[in-house]
Each structure stands twice: as C-alpha cells, then as structure tokens.
Write the structure tokens for this entry.
Amino acid sequence: MYVINLILDIPLRNGYSYLHSEALPRGAAVSIELRGRTQIGFVASSVPAAQFSAYPLDKLKPILAVGDSNLIIPEHIWQLCEFAASYYHHPLGNTLFCAIPVLLRKSTEINYIAADNTYYQATDSEIKPRGTKRQQLLETLRQQALSLPQIRALIGANATNLIDEWLAAGLVQITTPPPASYAHQALALNSEQTQVISTLSAELGKFHAALLYGITGSGKTEVFLHLIAQVLANNQQIMVLVPEINLTPQLAKRFEQRFPYAKISLINSEISDKQRLNAWLSAKNGQTNIILGTRLSVFTPCANLGLIIVDEEHDDSFKQNDSLRYHARDLAVWRAKQLQIPIILASATPSLETLYNYKAGKYSLYKLTTRAVQNALLPQIELLNLQHYPANFAGINQIALEKLAACLERKELALVFINRRGYAPVITCYDCGWVSTCLRCSTNMVYHHDKHQLKCHHCGYQTQVPPACPVCHNQYLHTIGHGTQKLEEFLTEQFPNAKIKRVDRDTTSTKKAWQQIYNDINQQEIDILVGTQMLAKGHDFANLTLVIGLNLDNALFSYDFRASEDMFNVLTQVAGRAGRADKAGLVLLQTNYPDHPVYQFLKNHDFNGFINHTFQERKAHNLPPFAFYALIKISSTSESTLKHTMQELSTQSKQIPHPEVTLYSCVPAVMYKLHNRYRAQMLISSNNRNALHHYLNTLESQLKPSNYVTIAIDVDPLEV
C-alpha cells in the first residue's frame, strides 16, 4: 500500500494525500473524491504506507481511478510548472491546471484519436475514375503522396470511402510519407539572411538565446523557415509562439506550403477543447512536427523539441494578466535552457528587457537591416502638425485625405490606423455635463453606432443609448472623440466608390472573419483598411503603400512608464506595413507635438536612438529593466472590506524585514472599479531579484485571501 501525494486545482501550497495499492509515476492523472465530489488530481510523489506518519492511514481515502499513460504530464512540463509557480508566486496546483487542456482537467477517461500518418499514392493502374475531381485527385496522387486529411481537403467528406474503394480496386496503395523536412518554394536570400542562417545553424543542438532584430519586411520569417527545415531533417519538433491568433493563418499557410508533409498543430483559444487535447497529446507523443500557437502553447509537451521561436517577442500579449500571471517569452527562454536547445526571439522593435539581456551578455544579437524584397525600402514618415492642419470631426485632416485620394487613384491599398474601436469614446450632455460611464467599472462607455449601444471595453457590459440625458432630460446628446466606426462612416461618405473594411475586435469576433478579410486583401478586394493595432503585428500586404495614424498623442501623457515604448513599437510596426514590395511607402502621423522625441525617432527610423534615450530615462528613475518590480493586487466586492485589507497589508508588509526592498504605499488602482470589484495595489521593488523573491515568499505565507477578498501577486507587471 502506498500514500499518493496529489496536486489539485486549488489555491493551496500543500497537496492532498490518498491511498493506492501501488506506487504511481509523478504526473499521472487520477480521480479522487473530495468534499463529496469527484475531482482530478496529479501525482506529486508516492510514499510506502509504512514510511508515512503525517496523518493516520485510516483517515485517508482511496484513489478512485488512474488514467492511462497518455495522460501523464511529462517530467519537463512538471518542472516548467514548478518554476512558473515559484517565480510567479502562484499555487502549483493552479499552475498545472492552467498548463493542461480543459478536458484533461475534468476526467481520466479520454477518447484520444491518434493522428493518422498513413499516406496514399497512385499505382500504375490504367483504370480511369469518373468525374473531373476524382481524375484530378488521382493525377495529384501520381505526383506525390497525400494523407487522408489532405485528400479530404481536395475531394470532400467522402474521402475515406473513396480511398477504400480505390485501395480495393488497386488504383492507390499505402506508402511511406516523405520526410517532414521536405521543403520547396524557398525564396532567394540576401547576404544578411544567409549569414544569420549560417551562424544560427551552427548553434542547433545546444542552448543558445538569440535576438533576431530585423526591420519590418527584412525577411525574418524566411530565416525561420530555413532553420525549421534543418530541425525537421534531424527528426525534431519546433515550437513557434505568436502574440495574436490572427497571425496564425498566414504563418500556418507558409509552413504548409514549405513543408507539405509536416504535421502542424495550432494551439490557441479559438480551437475546441477536443482539438486542443488532440494537439497536446499529438505533440507529446511526437506525432506533431510544428507547434504553432499563442502564449498558452509554451506549456505544450513535446517528445523531441529542437527549436523554439518567439515571433514579435516585444508584444504585451505574451503576458497573462489573470490567474497565473506568466510571461510566455520568459518561460520559453527557461524551457529552452532546460532542454538545452536554441531559442530565437524575433522582432523589429525588441523589448527593452530583451535588449538589456543582450547587453548583459545573456543573449546573442543578429541583425537584418535591409528589406528582403529587392528595391523595397523603409517607408517615408511625415509628421502632420495638427496645430497647422487641424483635423475634421472624424479626426483626419485635409492633407491626409488628399494623400488617401491619390492612393486610391493608383489602385493601391491604404491603412488608416486608430487605436480605438467603436464610434466614439464617450457620449455626453452639454447642458449638465453627464457622461456615459459604466455601472460596473470606473471608466466611460464607448458608443457603438451600428447597434446604437454603449459598451464597456473592460467588462463587456452593454446597454442601449438613452433617448435623453438621464440627469436633466435634455434630448440632444453629443459624441466626443473618434473611433473606428466614425472613421469608417466618414470615409465611406468621402470615397463612395472605395471598398472600405473596418478591422477591429467587433468585426473579427468570429473564427473565420479574419481569414476572410486576409483573403480579400490579398485578392485586392479592399481599397482602405480602417483598424486598430490588430493590423500592426506581422502582417504582410504587398499592395499597401499608405499608412495614416490618428489620435496618437494620448500615449505621450500616460501614467504607465512603458507607454512611450509601446507607442514607438506599435507605430513602427504599423508603419512597417507600408512599402514592403517594390512600391514606395508613405506614413503620415497626425500629432500636436511633432517635436516630441518619440516622433523624431520614428521619423528618422532611429530605433537605436530611441532605445538609448529610453534606457537613460529608465536608469535615471530606477525603472525596469534596471530594477525588479512586483504588484500585490487586492480586489473585493465590498469597498469597506477592500479598505480594511489595504490597511492590514500595509501594516503586515512593513513588519517583514526588507533591507534591499522598497515598499510603496497601498493605493487604489488606476481603474478603481472593474467588473463590480473594487481594486487596490501595492508596489514592491528591488535592485536585487533574489531579494525581491525572498521578500515575496515571506509575504505570501502571511497573505490570507477569503471569499470576500482576492489577493494576487503579479511579478514583472506590464503596468505599474
């Protein structure tokens, strides 16, 4: 008899103990009874009953069922979760359950459909099938072997029956698939790409953290593809992390074209629970060659991982902001070191943290300073001074409109960028000053014209626009500010013959929406794109020659110390969409402050100048990456309870010795109310990372969350 120590999905630092007839491997899934309910747990350790003295054996319950070997969390993933739980000060149980598929959290009985690796090829039979589609399929099978999913994509749902018929008739035969490394349609490389690939190729097979800094359009993806081909040739797997789901379709398509025999698994929040489980198990069993996904993919187990790529590594979307508050980029680096494999962090605007690690000698730097397409140049950036050329009611000035009209005449694509979805940020009454505020959050409701609704972009609350002011009953309400909907409406009036498409969270809410938009762009079915920063990340539109940036100045006066860095990154990425082919690109940025350093660095494409300027600012004010920060976040449905907890935390934190740690006052959060919960935070900083974590460990042991108060620790927060 053995005592099995289990990790459960509960916010406790210690696990639970149960009895079982034999020892179980660490990571095995089991079902147990807890508080009258059947729950799933994972084995942390097995101890002979004779050596267990912490608790009377007759008080321990037996394990109800044990999952099969497919459900065992591999040791390298267990260690990754242990590190994440330790570094981000989160319970191990909650961390493990964040890392695994939803279906695996619910049951030990899993119906796993193993990937079908059977390939079919045409024989020398002279039999000619009926139907054009079938004849074309047979001709394709004479040229190359195809798997059943590939055949289904060509012929439809009847593929299985058809192949069975053809097997019986001798038209096709089962064959061995070509190696996954088979690649074609490679693009010509320039000297910089060739040099980078050659250097990085020599680092395969060992840990090596490489920062690939390449200007927009410099061909970073082509570098990835050449390295992936080499890793596939060694029968190893590749993990590619991207910040946004919308980036996966075009990247997946390039992988499929380049490696037609490679098994690619997509992992993101849009796939079903069953699809994620199958992708997770397929990667774990070594049946997947390439794992492509968002931040959650970093926890995917792999049988033989050989390379990790983090594309757009600077992007804030890699940081999880609730529950386990991890940063996928940082965990990916740790995992690469754990497995002794290389990792590539790629961006046209690397984060200051990554550049700091390069300057500290932890990472290597590789540069791509010219655009990959011959004769393609970085776009010209012009600053439109709104004090001299004011904007109209829709937020766009006359010069920008004239350039837009000229772009349409040339039948080229234009992008109008404004980082605000909806029609207008607020509705107000001029008579009494009423403003449309959210009932559940400390923020304004955004007006959405198409449904005549007010929406909160933080909690999702929505309501109809009142027919009159709820305070003074004035029937004339006014919109203030600009959003994508107002801009789209205005441009439609200005250019009635132009095909205009708005791209924001509202228009891409369905799974297939972005793919359709992307196809329309490539087929030149769109003349003007109106969108938010969704369009700024890694997209390649060959015919895009004009970018107009609106409503940009707000970031210059933000409370967030990262605001200028985020603004520079977004505008650099947006600007980089223009002129990526053989057509010249022009970027117009509307601003009231054209002399601001951020705009001047942007205008001159001076990334190094901006980085040096920002480094000096951060160092002078002891801000990250020159210091290490953590936020203690408190929330409660009761304002009085929150205030009481704030006082307790302030008193408690000061009683712990903190010679190398700076404690700041516990204060209300910038958004004091969110989702009907009142929020506060306390900032803790240190110049010594170990000292900060030592202090957090001590404080964590004293924190006492309850049903009325939630307390969480956010290490390396994005906003302070």
